[in-house]
Amino acid sequence: MAASLVFRLHDRGPELVREVLLERGWEEYDEGEREEEDWNLYWRGSAFRTSEYHNLLPWQRLNHHPKTIGITRKDCLARNLRRMKAALGSSLYDFSPTVFILPNDYTRFLAEYNKLRLVRGPYWICKPVDLSRGRGIFIFEDIRDLAYDCSVIVQRYISNPLLISGYKFDLRIYVCVKSFHPLTVYIHQEGLVRFSTEKYNLSSLHNLYAHLTNTSINKFGPFYRTDKGKVGQGCKWTMSKFRHFLHSLDINELLLWQRISNIVTLTLLTIAPSVPSCPNCVELFGFDILIDAKFKPWLLEVNYSPALTLDCQADITVKKGLIGDLIDLMNYTAIDGLRERAYQKHRYKQPCFNTNHASHISIPVISQLKEPKLQRKRRALASNLTHNRSLHVSEVTNHDNTETEAEISGEADASSSIPDTHGSQRPVRIPVEENTALNGQHIPPLRVGDFIRTFPFNRATLKASQHKLDVTAIIQELHKLTGQLALGRLDKTKRRREEEVKKNTEGEDDFDSLLWGPKDPPLLIELIENRQKIKE
Ligand code: ADP
Fold first, then answer.
1. Where are stretches of biased composition, namely Polar residues (predicted)?
2. Cα(455)–Cα(446) distance, rounded to whole angstroms?
């Protein structure tokens, strides 16, 4: 018999995580009733202590990797991107606006300010380094308006954003780093488009409702509930609605998605070598991307613990599915429910955390009990789960008539059930098995629910991420792929793609990857072949 899986929430939140897990038959940890180690997932909004990583037991997972502050604090991100620019060339890392950390960089900022002022008067945005939700941010053109009493970053203001009906917006992209060693990254197909609620206007820099896209600010704006042209009411769209909008424009949409995906990979590469290995951790980051009028995507910041509050229908549609898929990605198996017995029997005190990031500690209880014969079948089922999951997401109707997908509850198909001692059926997720086809190297599933694997995306990147991270090789591969996508538009052949997916789920040894972003993501191999045909 396997006991229920148990989750533990720090400070009793977020409510959405509780809701999703309870719906799946998990139980909430109660310290009065359970032993200290008797939980499977500990979720907290803030960072875990080092000792919590060190004491982690095989059946326990945490929702943060250690030491990711290098990208989630504005000044650390600025420093890391600067370092990468210096090492690898500024053209590769040109997706982040020029930035200065004040007060330290004040002289350098002054020089740049004066230099640019001679050509054309650029705008700047000043942000406290460790605040979020738009707090303390202001935009200025004249250095005399720059005033700060804490550590801040001053960044070039992207003054030509792409507008929809005259309103500025940015994209909230949800990124799950399943592992840093080897680097394994998934990006969720759904995300949010966050609008400002007053029309964009460079002659009113002080109007935060026109220049900032934070929901925490705009939901209090006087025009929040007003109809705002194509934007509609409120201040959010789902990514599906944005995709629909993109289709109406004559652009190389695939290239845009790939460039955003590149930003995610290149940003993670800045810290990947220095994050200690902790196989029992996952992390959900919120990447904020602004698209300018020339369709160039810019990285604004990376959020640690992106907000999981449900302010509107778009939030419900996106975030509920997101958390469900994240849980699936963690790949809990029935055996995780045996934590107590395993604990008593083996007295596991071997930590799952390792500061020597190159080596990996396996999870003995889980790996010993895997049934290799079932691997293919499970992988195929996991792939089915993918489709059912995205259908489940759209059970919620979008208030602004977004194109919605078919409405089916995919839960029953997506789960297997194992009877407990009382004979009742408890949902247990089907394990998402990894393909071990390539010389014994694990290939993570190409898709879990609406999470698309974006790294590694081919054999070369898999190899480059296995031991010591080979950043140069990875960058070469990114260049190659982006170049291929830049060649022109895709002639999509749906049947062909389906055949490829089928082949993949049947256990072929090929390394397939999907292109994150577009509706019905195509296989990369198909894109590359099409590009080659266009060239010939
Ligand atoms: P916070 O963590 O406080 O949300 P962000 O860096 O995300 O800080 O900035 C808040 C908002 O300000 C963004 O969502 C975006 O609308 C706007 N913004 C931030 N930086 C820039 C920039 N360089 N150019 C244009 N707009 C920006």
1. 414-424
2. 9
Closest CA to ligand 1's atom 15: 212
Helix (H) or strand (E) holding 125: strand 124-128
Residue nearest to atom 21 of ligand 1 (CA): 157
* Residue among 130, 132, 141, 214 to mutate when testing ligand 1 (max atoms within 8 A of CB): 214
Report how far ligand 1's centroid is from the alpha carbon of 299 (Å): 9
Could you say which architecture CATH assigns to the domain 1-95+159-469?
2-Layer Sandwich (3.30)
Q: How many CB atoms lie within 10 A of CB 250?
A: 7
Residue 301 alpha carbon, nearest atom of ligand 1: 6
CB under 8 Å to 253, separation ≥6 — which residues?
A: 246, 247, 517, 518
pTM for the predicted model, two decimal places: 0.82
Q: What is the CATH number of domain 98-157?
A: 3.30.1490
Q: By alpha-carbon position, which residue is closest to atom 27 of ligand 1?
A: 157
In the numeric block, which tokens belong to residue 121?
């008067």
Cα 207 to ligand 1 centroid, rounded to whole Å: 14
Ligand 1 probe mutation, 125, 200, 296, most atoms within 8 A of CB: 125
The token pair at 197 is 């609620």
Rounded to an integer, what distance in angstroms lies between the CA atom of residue 136 and that of residue 143? 17
Residue the block writes with tokens 């604990």: 343
Map residue 420 onto helix, strand or coil: coil
Model confidence band, residue 397 (pLDDT cutoffs 50, 70, 90): very low
- Percent helix / strand / coil, the chain, rounded to 5: 40, 20, 40
Question: Each residue of 48-84: pLDDT tens digit?
Answer: 999 999 999 989 999 999 999 999 999 999 999 999 9
The tens digit of pLDDT for each residue in 511-520 reads 889 999 999 9
Domain ranges of the chain: 1-95+159-469, 98-157
d(CA 425, CA 416): 9
Distance CA 426, CA 431 (A): 15
CA distance 139 to 137: 7
Q: Compute the C-alpha angle 458/529/295, nearest 5°.
A: 80
* C-alpha to C-alpha distance for 399 and 74, rounded to whole angstroms: 34
- Token pair in block for residue 408: 């089916």
Paired sense of beta strands 41-43 and 61-62, if any:
parallel
